[in-house]
Every structure is written in C-alpha cells, then in structure tokens.
Design goal:
This protein has 152 residues and is α+β, with helices and mostly antiparallel strands. It is built from 5 helices and 5 strands, in the order ββαβββαααα.
Length: 152
Amino acid sequence: MSEYRVVTELPNGGVSLTQLLGDQTREDYKKMAKEMDGIVVDVVDLPDSQDRDHWVISKGKVIISPESVAREMTDTIRLIRNSKLTSLDVPSMRAMEDGDMDTSKDIKKKKDVLRELPSMVEEKLNKIINSKKKPATKLKELQKFHVSELDE
C-alpha cells in the first residue's frame, strides 16, 4: 500500500511534508494538496537525502536542487578559505620581521590563490549548474567537485 505526503515549498527554501491522520486515500491527499498549494508524493519517490534544505518541487516531483547544493558548497569553501588565510597571517608577519623575503613571497602567493578561490569555484560550479544536464547528473558532478587548493 502506498504512503503519501503533501509536499509544499517553504518561503525560505526547502520543503514541508504533511501526513494526513487516519486512513486517507490518494484523493484525500490531492484535495489537501490543492488547498495547501502543494503536490502529492508517494514516500518511495522522495529523494534519499534527509537534508530537506536542498529539496525543491520541480515538474511535479521533489528533487534535490543542484543550485542549493552549489551555494552551500561555495559557503563552505569560503569558510575553509578564510580559516587558511587567517592561519597564514602569523607566519607572514614573522617572515617579514625576519627579513625572509622568499618565505614572505611564498605566503603572499598562497594568499593570492586563496583570495581568488571563491570566484574561480563559483565559475566552475556555475558551469555545472547552467549545463543542459539533468539535475541528477549535475548533483553527481557536484559530488565529485574538488578544490585541490584547500588540500594543504
């Protein structure tokens, strides 16, 4: 027997799932979905991910939004980048105090790369997002996305 939910989009992103109490038919769910400006979905058709912040309604289905995932990735990359920039401040100051120009230049190069990182990452992620590929294919590409500049 199928188990249904009414799915509505939340104003701040993500979705809300509503389960009706008692023995309800698909028709009961359809009526409620119409009242709530949502859709009826069988729970087996919901995305595997429990992170509903990335769920959206698209063409009558609930999918994981590649755009939302890419935005979160960019935010996370910025946080890591900021931490790495901060961690280079003390060694940079020590190198300058010691007159170690080679180390100072190396640190400056690293910082420059880190400063340019968000725009480079956004450009690459936008290529994935703006491609004509299906959302599921875009998500697979996003999952494989790696920023080697943050490995150090």
